[in-house]
Design a protein that fits this description.
The chain is an alpha+beta fold and 361 residues long. The protein has a single domain, classed as Jelly Rolls (Sandwich). Helices cover 27% and strands 19% of the residues. The chain contains nine helices and 16 strands. Strands 1, 2, 3, 4, 5, 6, 8, 11, 13 and 14 form a ten-stranded mixed beta sheet that branches. α3 packs across α7 and α4 runs antiparallel to α6.
Length: 361
Amino acid sequence: MTGDSKDDKRQRGVLASSAEFTHYDQVNKPDYHLAESADGADVFDEDFEFSTCDLGRFLHGDAGDKRKFADELGEAMRDIGFAILEGHGVDPELFTQAEGWVEEFFTTTELADKMRFRAARHGAVSEGYFPIEETSDIHPDQVEGWVFGRRAFDLPGSEQPFDAAALWPRPEFEPKFRQLVKAEAELILPIMRSILMGLGLDPKLFDKRLHNANLAARLNYYPPLDQGAPAGASRLLGHEDIDLFTLLPAPRIEGLQALKRDGRWARLSPPADTIILNTGDYLQRLSNDILPSTTHRVGRPRDASLSHKARVSFPLAAYLRPDELLEVLPGTGTPKYEPIKVITFHTRTTAKFYGDDYAVE
């Protein structure tokens, strides 16, 4: 892709297969069409049901409850890399409020103020504002996005004095979203412990690495689809998350789809107030391909009337720190991957979306 303009790459991305970009990938991934087919040619498994797991059993149960939850979650994640979490303990009113905050944040902030915070690499992660159609260099995604790393919130463990105005165009939104981030961040360690237990490993293996965990909150605003979207453009192209795992409070408007191993797509329409969990590239590499980093995308809702409404989402990504090592975990078989620094692994992969000069060797 080197030498192509962004416009050329985006136009190709409407029609392209992921096979054109495999040289960026650092774990094994399937071949798929990047964009949702405008003619409806994609094949769906409309009967597939994602596993719903009660995280409360791990948070509050005895040793037997924890084991049962870890086994149940492990089975779901090995199968498709996605599960729906209930019993997570986060106040559902926070999710309801956050939906309003996201829409207000994007629709009442002037573009000039947004552009002052244009996304740029910080450590391994591209943080800041992504304008409409510029989430990726390879597809005109119909979403405005904003990535706020841990440093954008007044959380424990900060290395520098906190200044919301340095990272927020509207600093009054920081304490609002901080409530949500703090509540979900409390789930990172127990989820990682349950994943490790499901792999037959010491559940506390990552306790130190996830103390004051490296994380990023992404705010997504998908405008109504009748506002001049380019032909063939999806709300968000097919991709895999590059993290340990992602926590996504169930969106109100459908569109999230995951790619099954048999090449069919499955729709995620979880109950309100649940959290969608999916594993990312870090965990696929650490688990030696046992836990897949599953391809997913955001397509058009089946109910045409919902296309005229804005859609919002606010996933939270759990990372490791840039200078740490990604090394295949013991007990997961003969390693398929060499040890690699997080920053190298992360930026080589995401150079697919941000340009070849994004990679840090």
